[in-house]
Automatic annotation (TrEMBL):
This is CDP-glucose 4,6-dehydratase. Residues 16-253 form the NAD-dependent epimerase/dehydratase domain. It comes from the Bacteria. Belongs to the NAD(P)-dependent epimerase/dehydratase family. Pathway: Bacterial outer membrane biogenesis; LPS O-antigen biosynthesis.
Length: 370
């Protein structure tokens, strides 16, 4: 299958509901959808922190009608009734492992009950024909063996965040059978690997913490330098979400869940930081001799073969390019370049990579037929 690319002609004028549009991935996805001409309605809490990507990419005025807590079923239903979406991307979540330990009750309320509220509202309104619910690579029962997980592996979790996202998968599976199949609405979950890229300012995330430390000439304290994760640029899984939504809308036979991750092996925290440090002056690190803090999986890897087979989704950027693009974004942002210009440049570069990859596959296929 040729490289999967979202079709701008498909998205032009489509009514899309995007929950979590004020977050890091949500802000990027909102930018991409609107660039293709989609009519996007958001549903989220206001951006967190003194700095957010949403502030730099989108009008704050739109929040007047798009702020709601997904734990509030009545508010969610009201917004969905107004949006009457044809396609839904559910990204709103409590997405931080350490915050899950600090507030397990709130984490379950957002990730499980909140997902139920969104799906119930979408079902009642009845206009949607495709729903993509994002979960995480951490939904799998992980014995730290390092084997790459496939979608049929058992779900589980050893921390409140992972447990809540595994439970979210069960909510989606239940609603698929009880509400959406008979209504002709396709629904699938998207399990993405560790995402990096310009514009993420969240606490307790590797590169945002590094940028904050290095920008003030401080040393970065690294809790688990040997931990391995499936790192990828934020635009990689977003491309997968868009293509998956198109295929769900078309009604073709698809799986109920897809992994989106790099085609290469997972890389250690230490290696990613070494790549990032090469792009910064005076990038110092204090590597913990022993893991600190509550339990987190040591080894994590995904097998993205199903998304490659069904959707044509393969990695376009290797890890070194992913880190270089991310570091460039932050360095230029710290130098005063506006977020919209930086995101536009990264988006254009990524689309060019995708078009060149697709062109190469077409030439290879034509050569094979001679």
């Amino acid at each position: 299958m040729l490289v999967g690319l979202p079709d701008p002609a498909f998205w032009k004028g489509k009514r899309v509901l995007l929950t979590g549009h004020t977050g890091f991935k949500g802000s990027w996805l909102l930018y991409w959808l609107e660039a293709m001409g989609a009519q996007v309605s958001g549903l989220a809490l206001p951006p967190e922190g003194p700095v957010s990507l949403f502030d730099g990419l989108h009008s704050m005025g739109r929040l007047a009608g798009e702020v709601a807590d997904i734990r509030d079923a009545h508010a969610v239903l009201s917004l969905v009734e107004t949006a009457r979406p044809e396609i839904v991307f559910h990204l709103a979540a409590q997405s931080l492992v350490l915050r899950g330990y600090a507030d397990p009750v709130g984490t379950f309320a957002v990730n499980v009950a909140g997902t139920r509220n969104v799906l119930e509202a979408v079902s009642r309104v009845g206009t949607a024909r495709a729903i993509v619910v994002t979960t995480t690579d951490k939904v799998y029962r992980n014995g730290d063996g390092g084997r790459a997980f496939v979608e049929s592996d058992p779900l589980g979790g050893s921390d409140p965040y992972s447990e809540s996202k595994a439970a979210c998968e069960l909510v989606v599976a239940g609603y698929r059978v009880s509400h959406f199949e008979a209504a002709g609405c396709g629904i699938a979950t998207a399990r993405a690997g560790n995402v990096i890229g310009g514009g993420d300012w969240a606490e307790n995330r590797l590169l945002p913490d590094a940028v904050r430390a290095w920008s003030r000439k401080a040393s970065l304290e690294v809790r688990r330098p040997g931990a391995t994760r499936p790192w990828q640029h934020v635009l990689e899984p977003l491309r997968g979400y868009l293509v998956l939504a198109e295929r769900l809308h078309a009604g073709g036979p698809l799986a109920g869940a897809y992994n989106f991750g790099p085609d290469c092996e997972s890389a250690s925290v230490r290696h990613v930081l070494a790549l990032a440090a090469s792009h910064f002056d005076d990038a110092r690190m204090d590597l913990a001799p022993q893991p600190e803090g509550p339990h987190e999986a040591h080894a994590l890897a995904l097998d993205p073969g199903l998304a490659r087979r069904d959707l044509g989704i393969t990695s376009l950027w290797a890890l070194d390019q992913t880190v270089a693009m991310t570091a460039r974004w932050y360095r230029q942002s710290l130098a005063g370049v506006d977020s919209r210009s930086l995101c536009a440049e990264d988006h254009a570069t990524y689309l060019d990579s995708a078009l060149r990859a697709a062109s190469g596959e077409r030439r290879a296929a034509a050569g094979g037929r001679r």
